[in-house]
Amino acid sequence: MVFDRQPDVSAAEVEATRARPAPAPAPDLAGQLMQLQALGGNQMVGRLLNSMSDGPSADPGAAKTGLIAQLNGLLAELPADGVRLTPEELAGLNGHLAQLSTLLGRPLPPVVASAPVGVLPGLVPVATPTIAEMLTAIGAAIAGLSLAEALLIIAAIAAIILLILLLFRSAVRRPAPAPPAEVDEKPDEKGKPKPEDGPRPPGPVPVPVPPGPRAIFGPVRAANTPAKMPDRIPDAGVVDVAVQIINWTPALGPIRITVDNAPAGGAADFGGSPETVVNGPSAVLPVHGSRQSPIASGTPLKLTARLGGTTPIGSSAGFAVAAIMQDMATAFGRIVNDASAGMVVSMSWQSDGASIRSVNEIEFEEQLLLVSETGSLAGHGLGDHGGLLVADIMPQNDNHLSPHADVTKGPGSQVIQQVFGFMDNRTGSIGMVVRNSGFSISRVIEADPSRPGKLHMIMTKVGRAGAVGAFASGAGAGAAMAIIPLN
User: Fold this and answer.
1) pLDDT of residue 377
2) Residue 214: C-alpha distances to residues 209, 242, 249, 363, 396 (Å)
3) Quick one: which of 28, 73, 260, 421 is 20 to 30 A from 8 by CA?
4) Kind of pairing, strands 477-485 and 325-337?
């Protein structure tokens, strides 16, 4: 199946859209990867750095094997007594694991300290079994990826894993902390014990301080967001977000909720107001996306609760304002019967944002599965495969054509399942499934009853739920049919 655009879209506009560069990785990511290359001296990092400019690897299976080898290599390097991280490194590591869990679609165990923070000045000890459990879980998740999934997300997974390797290899090379200096307990110059020597009277018993208020937010996430996509809301409508104020009392007064990192990361409001007030132990906030997040910004926004309007008492997880495409439909366009035989259908879809322009950073592509082939169409295959297309140009044509020589050999049939996936340049999400984008495409070649001794081909395209690898979607809408005389 090959897409082309309607004649009213200019060639210049199409080429300009196709030529738009993919979002480049953040400069600090490339820099850290180069540091890892210097530390580990491995070719995997070099291949990833090349992929940042040359596109994803053509061999996702080899990339999977290489990443698992890197994880096993780190397992072999871990010292028996574990490693020591700064609190900032531990927080960053668990942030990387959360991103990796979202990409892989399965939970990964967080890394926790093996002793209370403060046992070592400025460092957090992490036991080797804890690290091994994490690395084993990551390896199992990567091994479980299908080649189709790996092709779409392997570069993003590799980037996160290699940052984790950098962090641990740096920690392994960190010098052990120096033992605390010994205190020389000598008597004073007259030979008398110093006043601080000997038993001391007990000090005052500390009075427990009641815990302060704390805000806990639910996810800022539209209900139609694909499971593997980060938290996001469209630039239309309202998404209800729950917030709970732990240890709330009436004496606290109003607690103000605002959107942090706006407008740089996009913008959201509460029914048109930039802030809202909570006056109780819980509330449901009507969050509206008013400006979409920039390209390659991830999830830059968050809701923050402030006591008295100034003291932060809790924030939500990050989220983006990013509209997506969904609910595809087909309709008959025209018959083609020249060097090729088949039909052209029109494809349309919905934006969950304010308009079709809201999905201008969504690119989508068909995914195909050969269901069956019989007779003269055995071995016909899937034909040409459409490439990435921009979602804000609609409708677009989907061509279902075959060379005449392939469909005039005699009776036969073929059935293909089609679903669509998309990538979002705002959040950096790839390998997402378009909701309700499943279609069944069939060809039947048989004797033409109106022309003795001749053949015709009956083509149909109808909405049908199905899966192609990891892409499973409900049925699209509409139908198209054509009868093409052959010979």
Assistant:
1) 96
2) 15, 14, 11, 40, 50
3) 421
4) parallel
Would you state the pLDDT for residue 448?
Answer: 96
Is the whole-model pTM more than 0.85? no
Residues 201-242: pLDDT tens digits?
Answer: 565 555 555 578 999 999 999 999 999 999 999 999 999 999
Q: Given this model, what pLDDT does residue 113 score?
A: 77
Q: Which residue has the tokens 């998309």?
A: 422
Return the closest-CA partner of residue 473 out of 431, 435, 418: 435
Residue 107 token pair: 């939970």
The DSSP secondary structure of 192-238, one letter per residue, reads: PPPTTSS-----PPPPPPPP--EEEEPP---TTS-TTSPSEE-SSS-
- Beta pairing, strands 466-468 & 455-463: unpaired
Is beta strand 396-403 parallel, antiparallel or unpaired with respect to 466-468?
unpaired
Radius of gyration of the chain from its Cα atoms, rounded to whole angstroms: 30
> Using an 8 Å Cβ cutoff, are 160 and 99 in contact?
yes
d(CA 132, CA 76): 10
CA-nearest of 210, 221, 234 to 290 is 234
Cα–Cα nearest to 243, from 320, 317, 322, 321: 317
- Which residues in the chain come in under a pLDDT of 50? 2-58, 117-119, 183, 185
**Tens of pLDDT along 8-59?**
334 444 344 344 333 333 334 444 444 444 444 444 444 444 443 344 344 6
Angle among Cα 35, 37, 40 to the nearest 5 degrees reads: 110
List the beta bridge partners of residue 367.
Answer: 419
How many angstroms separate the CA atoms of 338 and 273, rounded?
60
Please give the Cα distance from 231 to 184 (Å, whole number).
Answer: 57
Residues 6+ apart with CB under 8 A from 152: 56, 421, 423, 430, 431
- Tokens coding 46: 């070099």
Any long-range contacts for 71-74 (C-beta under 8 Å, 24+ apart)?
71/135, 71/138, 71/139, 71/142, 71/161, 72/139, 74/135, 74/165, 74/168, 74/169
| CA dist., res. 428 & res. 21, Å (int) | 13
Separation of alpha carbons 117 and 95, rounded Å: 18
CB-CB neighbours of 472 under 10 Å: 12
49: left (phi over 0), alpha (psi -120 to 50) or beta: alpha
What percentage of residues in the chain have a pLDDT greater than 70?
77
- DSSP 3-state of 5: strand
Q: How far is Cα 419 from Cα 421, in angstroms, rounded to an integer? A: 7
